Amino acid sequence: MPLTPMQIDEILRSERDHDCPGFGKDKVCVRIVAIANLPSRFGDFQIVAFWNNRDDKEHVAVVRGDVRGQHNVPIRVHSECLTGDCLGSLRCDCRDQLEAALVAIGKCEVGALLYLRQEGRGIGLINKIRAYGLQDHGLDTVEANLALGFRDEERDFAIAAHMIKSLDIRSVELMTNNPFKIAELEKHGIVIARRIPHELPPNKYNRAYLESKVAKMGHQLTLDEQDGTGQPIKAG
Amino acid sequence: MIDDVLVVGAGVSGLAFAREILKEGATDVRVVDKSRGVGGRCASRRVDGQPIDHGVPLLHGESGRFRAELQKLQTRATVIADWPWRVRGDGVPCQPQAYRAQAMRIAVVEGVNQLAKQLAEGLAIQRECRVDALSHEGDKLVVHTSTGAQTCRTLVLTAPADQTRALIEPLASLDVIRSVVGVLSGVYTVPSWTVLAGFDRRDGEDWHLQLPGPESIVHTIVHDSSKRRGPWTTLVIQARASYSRQRLESDPAACTEDLIDAASRLVGAWVRSPRWVQAHRWRFARVQRGHELAHPIVVTLPGGARIAFCGEAFHPLGGVEGAFLSGIALARRLVSLSA
């Protein structure tokens, strides 16, 4: 059952004075500041808006049911990608990942998708598009992407971990192929009951990107031999 | 353990890098610079003993680290907090964030290059040493300079993006270098013709800075003598990028005349009769806003030698603060890579 107006009031009131030493080396602290219903094409959710003391970005959680005090809650941590999420870019698999997660969570009693806002701060989006330009010219190297990358992943996961704590989720089933995410969240005291593989078929534009995720970032993916068949891929 | 480091450029980023990496325990860190002084675009001259800042007119900081450096500067120099507070015109400053309420903003009475002097303390710096070319031999880099060849294991390039790119382009047969050349090609730098003008002392000029709009060829007029008392009333007139780009190879005297004329129409007729003028051409005055990269770059060449890059272009804040922070970020990165 979603939160009732009275429960929402209660949460917002108790969050008002939330004060903690912070998570991670940057002492990240987040507070829930607004909650509303969010009926969507993927099911009925509630959206929870967070303030944080570090990055001037407004992160949100799309929550299914009342997750407070719950164990084994399916969670997806999604990083904002304007080109993929909103504009339907095929250079990455962000939108597929986002939609699959929302569809899956929409079918559960409880669950949450943490939507971490990454782009648009400083020169993040400009540099991402520059990186695409370099890729178009075959100049795609780790060094170049690092110079253009704006993400501080350590901070991202401190924020995600705190969001999970603020939602009072006791243990999670993390929808991910990325072992780094699991390790980072565990470092901040999040109990990961299990990993739910989150795999989607590649297309001809993002196959190289997905392959580099496996090779360079240790993602657990099994990439199908055929492109764009729409066939789900087995978990690695 | 890091040793055998050569830093090209004794500007704020190169100096901040060298100091930080020495603090981290590195040994044999040398800095070379083509000019006589340190500071790069954090530049001050003296005319009859009176300092005049002809590059960066003020320092401003948002980050704790750079603010602390600016605080420390107050132990060796006199600073004017919040300068400039009397700003005329509605043009857009080079660094709009300097004027945000939370920014710390200062002018340095003894000259803005005091910051570089502070950073340079205790560093081994070879001045008047211009780097002409690079080559790569085994685990070493050979740096060909105006005073002879030097070798190093780690080379740190801090010059403006265009100059750095030209220096590494001959090594572009290496994939890692080719991609860095690609990254640097996306960083645009802006030139600025700058005129320094001295006038008989005028009292009653109470303004600090003037920012005319895009209809003028002048981008900024700094009332430099509002930062300090001296024999002269001084103005530093910095031309707009579009004008400077067009006239980059023009006769300095002609540009001086253009800029004095434009400034006199903004400030007053008295500007038409300076007692002395000096022109300075900043080929690479600053990084165009929005072109900054996120991080410094480190590439490892076959054989193990490293080329690293820092400077204003390698930090999202840009400007002096971006240069400073990129130098520190690079030192930390190299330390973590060698751990």
Annotation keywords:
heterodimer, A: 236 residues, alpha/beta, seven-stranded mixed β-sheet, 21% strand, disordered C terminus, B: 339 residues, six-stranded mixed β-sheet, 20 strands
Cα distance, first to last residue of chain B? 7 Å
Helix content of chain B: 25-40%
Main pleated-sheet profile of chain A: 7 strands, mixed
**Rg calculated over all Cα atoms of chain B:** 20 Å
Question: Which consecutive residue ranges of chain B, at least 5 long each, have pLDDT under 50?
Answer: none
User: How does the overall form of chain A come out from the CA principal axes?
Assistant: globular
Strand order of the largest sheet of chain B: 9-2-1-13-20-19
Number of helices of chain B: 8
For the largest beta sheet of chain A, what order do the strands appear in spatially? 1-2-3-5-4-6-7
Largest sheet of chain B: 6 strands, mixed
SSE pattern of chain B, N- to C-terminal: EHEEEEHEEEHEEEEEHHEEEEHHEEEH
Helix and strand element order of chain A: HEEEEHHEHHHEHEH
Q: What's the β-strand tally of chain B?
A: 20
Radius of gyration of chain A: 18 Å
User: What is the strand tally of chain A?
Assistant: 7
Describe the structure.
The complex is a heterodimer of chains A (236) and B (339). Chain A is α/β, with parallel strands linked by helices and 236 residues long. Helices cover 36% and strands 21% of the residues of chain A. Chain A has a 7-stranded mixed beta sheet, with helices on both faces. In chain A, helix 6 (153-166) packs across helix 7. Residues 224-236 of chain A have low confidence and may be disordered. Helix content of chain B is 27%, strand content 31%. The longest helix of chain B is centred in the C-terminal third of the chain and has 20 residues, at 319-338. The model of chain B has no long low-confidence stretch (mean pLDDT 95). In chain B, the strands form 5 sheets. In chain B, strands 9-2-1-13-20-19 form a 6-stranded mixed beta sheet, sandwiched between helices. In chain B, strands 7-15-16-17-14-18 form a 6-stranded mixed beta sheet. A 3-stranded antiparallel beta sheet of chain B has the order 5-8-6, covered by helices on one side. Chain A binds chain B through residues 122-124, 126-127, 130, 133-134, 137, 139-141, 143-144, 146-150, and chain B through 175-176, 178-180, 182-183, 186, 290, 292-299, 309, 314, 316.
